Sequence to fold (286 residues):
Amino acid sequence: MKIKTLIMAVSFFINVPFAISQSNSGSGNVMSNTEKESAVQSISKLLFDNYIFPEVSAEMEKYIKDKLAANDYSSISDPVKFSEELTKDLQSVSKDKHIRVEYNPDRIKKIKESDNNQSNDMQAEFIQQLKRENYGFRKVERIGGNIGYIDFRNFGPGDLIKEKVASVMEFVEDCNALIFDMRFNGGGDPTGIQVITSYLFGEEPVHLNDLYFRPADTTEQYWTLKEIEGKRRPDVPVYVLTSSYTFSGAEEFSYNLKNLKRATIVGETTGGGAHPGGMNIVDDNF
Fold:
């Protein structure tokens, strides 16, 4: 049987963090109109070069450039509030919650000054953070009716979380049904999704989706893994709980299982950003 696949829309987003908003108290710094114009021009160029839908990119560029020309940003002098306004404007056109502008000169400086040693340090810190957060698993238990309940908050890279995933799936391997709680999951790495999903299918690889990247004009396929640690449960009933907070990789996980008729989705409409993106530096401030 031919599996209908999803060509995932790769979004460009200027700000990486999930569920973190800028402080309304402001930065204390003052922006000039020249700095605002430069930021708008740079963002427009980045969107033009990277955003998955060129026609939507053109609409976003026109919108913020028109607002700049009409002096609609002239009353905003604080860079934090300027970034919030740009985020609101870009999302109003694209309806894409992955697009965010962040004011963070300290982070940009660290990125520009980083060398291999610092990159290794950052990777080590990332791994330690994964460990502190139990690799995204908040709660795993067996509830009434011998049902396995998994409260999972984010998807780390597959090679880093595979051992933890194996231990979690071992704990619920003899359950009569599985519930994956994605209501507080903000996303993560598609390879992490690949690892967890592989436990729900047989040994024969199943095509999950394709990710298309416009800047490089490349497509990357994702299939379930042929080799995993532990017991496969291709026939166990699976339920996925969603909320409006369910976002990005958590939406992909939910979509994959729904599209392949492997799970029942229960809950609210999800956030609306089931595609990857990446951070781009606009200038020394954004």
Observations:
- The CA atoms of residues 44 and 170 lie 49 Å apart.
- Residues 22-111 form one domain.
